[in-house]
Structure formats: structure tokens, C-alpha cells
Design a protein that fits this description.
alpha+beta, Alpha-Beta Plaits, homodecamer, 97 residues, elongated
């Protein structure tokens, strides 16, 4: 099942720059892994914001929660909106969605 | 450039059932054509609603407007929200986005 | 997977009273069937409104959409909000959720 | 009487990790007790958030307030929305609601 | 248990003036009866609107729904918001609330 | 004139427990006094929140502001919504409102 | 006591042009009378809309409701928001407010 | 041109009481000056809040911004909403607006 | 003075196609005239909607209202939001704004 | 392609005045450069707020994000809303938009 997820991040005030750098590096590696496993399908940045829209694939909401809460940047995700998606007859997905 | 578009439809009250049927058939054919041209990238139904989320590709907002307003069901799209999307470093797009 | 669904209904203006009566009877029978199949888990009325909150079970959002759109009163559901639910460690569900 | 309750939590900034751990352990034990007494009927996690939806049973809003304000994590519940629920004719509750 | 209820009314377009007059008369008589039974505790008009705020008393949300849906003007109540109320330590109620 | 007032409170972070205790005690005594003077007519707690709904009586908005801003807990009232109330023909007030 | 009132109007669909003209004429005459009696203190048009902001004076919300509901255009006031106003120490009112 | 302006203030946490006192005194003197110059036409307090509604006069939005940002309390104005006002035919302004 | 204006249009149901065509032609001619007079500075279409964003120039809100309400399509402007604009130090306007 | 962008800024609490001064100077120089390159088309201040509306030009949302996130004041932009703009038939743009 696919989910459309809108995530807003915000670093803590006075966050240690090294920690921030490490989180960013870890996050990228983690995302690449999730993409390879087929969980992260697409991701875009919202222009002008520290926010993204992503298409995610998981067995159900429980697995999606495990995936999102397992990300290195999860503690800084100040707002997460999950939209459950149903198959649409005209969807040109290049894989069995 | 890609756009995330959220479209809500509502048929007119007392709409002729034949017209409705024809619009649905035309819309599907038109969507298939847009998918083939690379304009319609993905489309999902919002569960329980006559509403969809779609990923669209167009040169700019002007071309996107032409594409959307050229759809057979356009007169019944009562709400259209367009979110411009920027490239994200971790996007696993299977094509040059 | 379970979903929390909030549904608002509104009959059409000048609706034929017989049709309305028939829809109500059919809806009740249909709901009883969905309960027996395990799709409709719980349902409550919002006091003072023609609106309900329900706990539904379906394989995914696609099946949920089929269930909801197959109900006799679906054409009069003017607003449907679907909240995907993840397992919580303290949930006292009397069955394997 | 049953209530649908939506609770959002947020730990204090710079919260002592031991205190946090203790609250989590106490909260789970407390929730199990409330479930046994029939006050906590169901509970789900909102995917991607530190937020839950719960079905609660109490004599009235006064008792519900006592139950919620008596929970170990109550000081960190930054938003609590209570929806009073009325019986619905098609509710398949496995117990007298 | 007491409830704070905010009700907005709107007559149908082209409503028969006689029917409207009859509903108003019936509503007043019905409200007086509900007040006598202790269900309607207080009622105020929102200035400039066809809307009221009321304090209602009922065993639970199920009884409140029966009371509200039994009112002559119920079909014209286009919006009803119910706020469940808990006892407050400083409430100067002139009766056992 | 009567007013419906919705007040949300929030203690300061790291507030001195003794100060908090003193404010609570003073607030209760002050509220009892306002009730005796006929300014505080009714007060309820919003279940699960540090928030109340109250019916207040004052000559006008200026006097209401003096009453509210004179309360010991006023500096911690983070949100105050005032709804002016007009007499309703069916109000069963047990006193001349 | 003064009130800040925001009124939005909308004529009925297919309204008789003569009726509309008469309402406009009556409304102006009525407003002039209310101004002379000191009830209507100021009135402005919201640019681009059939909406106004006004400063009104009345003994209380009950009298304000009588004034507003007695206006010829009242049946076409689709939204009325009333803000109760308290005296401000720096108000340069040219009369005893 | 006149503007309706809604201003919400909030003192900084742990603000020096002397600074606060000085700002209040300066603000009053400054407001009196603006009233004399014809820029501040009316001002009211929102009951129960540290917020005001004011009628202001300025050549255009640029001058209004200079006036507002020149006030001693400007750094504590956490929300400012400006509504541009057009002349209304029935406005009983006691001066050429 | 410049204003940012957001206008949403909606044709009447069952509107005469000839009338609609005439309004569109008149509107374009009228807009060209307003551009020439310096009142209409810029205009864009919101993609996927019958809605526009425009930069307008007028002496004040009263003149802006006259301009907007004098447009052929004014009766079909179902929502108009006017944002007053102040000069910004970095504005690269190619003319004296 | 043009974008309408609404930016709200907020300096950090206890920000070093010298840093603030330097950011303001850098921001102005940077904006002048963006104007010269044709990226910043127009900019206005929202009266009474530390907020602006701007018309920006960029190849797509990705380039717009690079432009906005490259500004000296970007870390203090607490809210950025981007509206994609399509060509309108009546736009009097003094250049090929």
C-alpha cells in the first residue's frame, strides 16, 4: 500500500553543528536504503521550506510508523501528515502498485 | 518540472447519466494519453472521496494549466490545489525528474 | 489494517421520501453484513448531527474505498475523512488487530 | 458512555532521559489497569506522530477528566480533543455499549 | 451531565411561510417542555445571527441526540457543535450539576 | 449582560511550585467572591484540558475586561475568547438575565 | 457599549430587481436613522466585496440584535460577526464612549 | 485613507519590569501624539486579551507601516492584521473621511 | 498605492453561453483599458483554477473598490481578497511605485 | 516561470545586534543582485509586519529553492508560501513573462 507523506522538519535551537551534520549524512544513507527496499518511492522538497512530500510504500500504517520513527531525523520532524492512497484506474505506475 | 496536484470533483445535480458516462470514458482515454506523453506521472484515489492526488509533469504552471483545463472532467473539478515540487537529494526517481 | 472514518451525510433537497426510507433500510442491512465480515468494527453517531465515527478494517486503502463506495448511502456522503491507524502497544483489542 | 479522544504528546525540551523512561513504563502499566477496569476500550497510534486516537468509557465528562488527568503522561499531553459519542443503530459492539 | 451546544439554523429557500410560523410556535412550546424536564438549562441568541448557545442536561450523548433530533426545528439545524462539560471546582451552580 | 467565555491556561515552564499552589488557592477564593457578586454565573472544565467555559455577567465589555484581568491567574490565560450573548425567548433562566 | 460588526451580504439568486432596488433605498434611509439615534457610529465597505465593517453602539447584545435584525437587508446578511469592545486608555473618541 | 488594524501584543518572557513600565508610559504618550496628528482615530481593547482594534488614518500602506513600526511597543506586537477600508455611502463620519 | 488582489470567479449554473461569451470579451477589453490607465499592473492565472492574482494601483481602497466593482465580471467574483502593499526598500519596480 | 512568494521573518530571541545588522546589509545587497539577474521582479512589505510579498522568476521550483535558500536571511524565514503562477491573457507585463 502506498502513502503520501508530508514532513516538516525543524532543528533544535542552539543545536550542535556537528550533530546536525551527522544527522544529515545519516539521513541520506538511510533514505537510500529505504529506497532500495522499496519503501521510499519518491521524494520532493517544498520550495523555500525545510519540508518534503514523499510517496512511501508499506504493508500498513503500523509498518509505515516503524519506518518513519526509525529515521535519524525523526526527533526533528515537527509535523508529519499521512494520506492513505487507494489505486486509481488511470494510474500509470511503472510497477505493480 | 513536477507538480503535486489534489483534485476534488463533483457532478452537477440532476446531471444526465449518459453525459456522466461519456465524461468518465473520455477522461480515462485522455488520462492514458497524458500518461503516454509523460504529463501524468502517478495518480491515486483518496479513499471514500471523489478526489485524487496526482504527480504531473509540465514545462511550467502555464503548461500545467493548459493540461488540466483541457481535461474532459475539468468543468466538474470544484477544487484544484497545485503544489510546485523541487528536486530532493534523496529522490529515487526511476527517470530524470 | 484498521481505519478511523468520519462520515457526514446529507440527503438531497426534495428527495423522494420513499427512496430515503429504502436507502435507510438497505444501509442498515448492508452495515450488518459488513460487521459480520469484520469490515465494520465499531460505529457511533455524532450527537445532534447526521454524522458518524466508525472503526473499519480492510486490507488497504483500495479495499476500504471499495467498501465505502459500495454502500447504499454513498452518494449522500458529502464528507468522508479517513485516518489510517497503527497498532499501539497498550491497545486492549479483544481480537488480533 | 463512550468518548473518542485524540491526544498529542510532546516531551519537554532537555527532559531528563531517566524521567522520560520512567513515565513511559508507568504509562503502560497505568493504561493496562484502565483497560482492565473498562475505561480504555481501544487505542491506536497516529502513524509518524507522537499522537494517539482512543476509545474511552466513563460515566460522564467529569469522570473522563479524572481518568485523563490521572495518567502519568498527562503533563506532556499538549493537545487533547474529546468527541462525545452516541449509540448508533448499526454498531456491532461485542459488549453492551 | 451537562453539554454546551451551539446551534445554527437556516430555513429552506422558498419555505412556506405558514410552515415556518408553525415550526417557530412548536419550537417554543417544545423548548418550554424541555426546560421543565430539566433538559434545557439556559439558552442565548448569538447577536446578529440565527444561531444560539445553550446549556443542556442529559444522561449521556445518546439521550442528548434523542432530545436534539426530536425538536421541531431539527431539520433546519445546519450546524450543531456539542461540547461535553466536566464539573469545575468553582462552579456556582444553584442546583446539583 | 451575559458573556460566554472560553479560557485556556498554561503555567510557565519551570514555574515555582509554591507560586503555582498560591495562585490556585487565590484563584478559587477570588472566583467564589465573583460568584457571590453575581459576575461568575457558571463554570465548567473542558475534559482533558486546562481550559474552562464560563457564563459571566457584567455591565459591558469594559467591566468584563476589568473582572478577567483582575483574576490571580490572568497572566497565565494564554487564550481568552469572549462571546457576547443576547436574550433568547425560550431561555429558562432562574433569575432576571 | 460599542461593538465592531463585520457583515457579509448576498442577494438571492434570481432576485426581483425591483425588490433589490427597494431594499437598497430602505437600507440607506434606515441606516441614516440609526446614525442619528447614535446606534451606527461608523461604517466602511470592504474593497471588492459586498461586505462592511461597522462600529455600532447599543445598551447590550440584546439591543444590538434587535437593531441588526430590524434592518431591511437583514434576510440577506449571510454572515455577521460581532466583536464586543472595551474602552482603551488611549482611545481618542470625540464623545463619551 | 482609513485602515482597521487588529494588534496582539505579548511581552517577552522574563522581561525587565522597569523596561515594561517604561514602554507602557511611552506608548501612551506616543498614541496621544498620533491621535492629535489624526493618525489614530479610535482604539478599543479586546476584552480579556492583550489585544486591540484600532481605526487608523494614513496616506497609504507605506505611511501606515512607518507609523506602526515607529511605536515604542512595536517589537512586542506578535500579530498585526491590517484591513484596508473604502468609503461607505451610509458612513456617519463626523469629519471628511 | 499598490494592492495585491486575489479573485475567484464562478459562473452561475445554467448561465446563458452567449452572455458568458460576451462577459469574457468585455472583461478582456476592460482589463486592457485598466492596464493602459495604470490601474492593472500585473495579472496571473492560478493554475487549474478559475482564479487570478493581480497587482493593482489605485489612490486608495475607495478607488480600488470602484475599479473592481466596475468590471463586467464583478457579479461572478465569488471571493475577492485585497492585500494592501507598502513600499519595500529592495523593490526593483521599473517605475515610481 | 514566475512565482508569487510570501515570506515571514522572525529574528532569534537574544540575537546579537551586530549579526542582525550585518544580515540586513547583506540581504539588501543580495536582493539587488537577484533583481539585476531578473530573479527578483517585485517586492512589497506587508504593513505592520516583518513579512513581504514578492514576485520571483526562476526556471522551475528547484531553481527557486536554490535562490531562496541562498539568501542571507533564509535561516530566519519562519514561513515561506510559494504560489506558482500561470500566464494570464490580460497580463500587461512590460517584458516577456
Amino acid at each position: 500500500m502506498e502513502f503520501l507523506v508530508n514532513i516538516t522538519l525543524r532543528w533544535s535551537d542552539d543545536m550542535d553543528p556537528e550533530l546536525k551534520e551527522r544527522i544529515i549524512v545519516d539521513e541520506r544513507a538511510h533514505a537510500a536504503e529505504l529506497a532500495q527496499k522499496g519503501h521510499l518511492v519518491r521524494m520532493w522538497r517544498v520550495p523555500g521550506r525545510f519540508e518534503n512530500w514523499g510517496v512511501w510504500r508499506a504493508r500498513d500504517a503500523t509498518e509505515l510508523h516503524e519506518i518513519l520513527s526509525g529515521m535519524p531525523a525523526f526527533p526533528w520532524m515537527v509535523r508529519v501528515d499521512v494520506h492513505p492512497l487507494a489505486r486509481h484506474a488511470v494510474d500509470p505506475a511503472p510497477y505493480p502498485a
